[in-house]
Specification:
The protein contains 8 helices and 2 strands; from the N terminus they run ββαααααααα. The protein is mainly α. The chain is elongated, with a radius of gyration of 33 Å.
Length: 174
């Protein structure tokens, strides 16, 4: 009983000696297993391109079985699966291009708010306040439906009446 060599790729072990190792590491079975292992980590886009380049494996797609397995020269990937992969690639790409998508959108909101504020201040100095205030009241706020279905809300939590609250403007201060 000597040491045993365990091959992770093939998930099998054999008695460890030069001859056995050499035979195993050069074996077709081992190469296939190793390739399949690394295929797991390949770029999804590369996989999709390769699959699209192949003819579909009729046998596999009809029966779910094919003697060639992962080494089949035809594609075992169904149209649905390819679509899913495509979506995943898209999502990954977007993630890479805009890693802080949330941040940038909130940044946009701040910019928007700042420019509105600037306009408002300009209006304040020129005296056309009421117009701006009106605009803000008309602004449509989307109320999530689940909020509307809560009964007996206290007045402060009720959604604003359609058209917004009537605001009486006090332009003159006493
Ligand atoms: Zn092996
Ligand atoms: Zn096949």
């Amino acid at each position: 009983m000597g040491k045993r060599y365990y091959c992770d790729y093939c998930d099998r072990s054999f008695q460890d000696n030069m001859h056995n190792r050499k035979k195993h590491l050069n074996g077709v079975q081992h190469h296939r297993a190793k390739k399949a292992w690394f295929d797991n980590f390949r770029d999804a886009a590369t996989i999709l391109n390769e699959e699209r380049a192949k003819e579909p494996c009729r046998k596999f797609l009809q029966t779910g079985e094919c003697v060639f397995g992962t080494n089949c020269r035809f594609s075992h990937m169904s149209e649905r699966h390819m679509k899913m992969l495509e979506q995943k690639i898209d999502a990954d790409r977007r993630q890479k291009e805009f890693p802080n998508e949330d941040e940038s959108s909130s940044k946009r909101n701040v910019d928007e708010w700042l420019s509105r504020r600037q306009k408002k201040q300009a209006a304040l100095t020129s005296g056309s306040v009421s117009k701006i205030e009106e605009e803000e009241c008309v602004e449509n706020v989307e109320i999530p439906p689940y909020l509307l279905s809560i009964p007996d809300l206290p007045p402060s939590l009720r959604p604003p009446p359609t058209g917004g609250w009537k605001v009486t403007l006090q332009n003159e201060w006493g």
